[in-house]
Amino acid sequence: MAYVGFIGLGVMGQPMALNLAHAGTPLVVWNRTPARCEPLRAAGAEVAGSAAEVFGRAETVILMLADEAAIDAVLGRGTPEFAARVAGRTVVHMGTTSPEYSGGLRDDVRDAGGGYVEAPVSGSRVPAEQGRLVGMLAGDDDAVKAVRPLLAPMCREIFDCGPVPDALLMKLSVNLFLITLVTGLTEAFHFADRHGLDRHLLRDVLDAGPMASAVSRMKAPKLLARDFTVQAGAADVLKNNRLIAEAARRTGLASPLLDVCHALFGETVARGHGDEDMVAVLHALEARTEMVKGATSWAQTCKDRPRGQHSDPCSDRR
């Protein structure tokens, strides 16, 4: 029996791996926090004691990890263990990293005698639980062909994007739209709220019109309830924003909308909301509004103060 390995059982990885287990995939899993493995054990997957054990038992190993450092660590990259782990195996990179990193990793895996496929996905926790992610594949034709059926229990559609790193570039393009879309939706609710409008009515108007989408229907109820339970975390959005901005700069592209979003999500994370859902960008918008109100109030005070008055508190701020 050929095992499939799965490493990284976070907000996205755990439901993705569960869908594989429920589909009958012979699965061996590992996660840095062992408790995250228990639902997989209950679903019939085998739990490894280490990342090295996963590579020792599986022919294909799926990585759904948070960042490049985590990927390098489980692969043993830069150590003699790297070649032993990847030789004769296919590494499937499903997380979101810079395209340049992915290209370098592909080269290293190839040089060590392994196969490599990029397979980032579009979607958050709920689509992951439902097996309705959208997959994007890049890599050598034979490797992509072999990996595609493995992703079927996790994805409602899968697209071939060409050579590495084009799947990650496609993912960043999709995420650029998502980030600006959700930020705009959040600002629309903030605008309506501060004008005294019925926000439930705004939701109904949006749902009835051409701008309604699966994203708006998922995020609007969260904004109505101020429910910041994570689906796509603000800190992860900030990371994606940075990756997109870096890719744009390397190509000489302007990214004005993205730059505004980058600042807002940076403020959101700085205010302690990084572990909350991306609609927590509302906190940054509210804080900016309070700053504008404060500046407007100060300006009006200075305007109304009689000229020549002693101890003018406005004089030091001109």
From TrEMBL:
A Pfam family reported for this protein in Swiss-Prot or TrEMBL: NAD_binding_2
Record domain 6-phosphogluconate dehydrogenase NADP-binding: where: 4-161
Biased composition (Basic and acidic residues): 302-318
Region: Disordered, residue numbers: 296-318
GO MF term (any one): NAD binding
Source organism superkingdom: Bacteria
GO biological process per UniProt: organic acid catabolic process
Catalytic site: 171
Domain 3-hydroxyisobutyrate dehydrogenase-like NAD-binding: 169-284
Keywords, in A-Z order: NAD, Oxidoreductase
Gene3D superfamilies: N-(1-d-carboxylethyl)-l-norvaline Dehydrogenase, domain 2 (1.10.1040.10), NAD(P)-binding Rossmann-like Domain (3.40.50.720)
Protein family per UniProt: Belongs to the HIBADH-related family.
Protein name (Swiss-Prot/TrEMBL): NAD binding domain of 6-phosphogluconate dehydrogenase
Species: Streptomyces ipomoeae 91-03
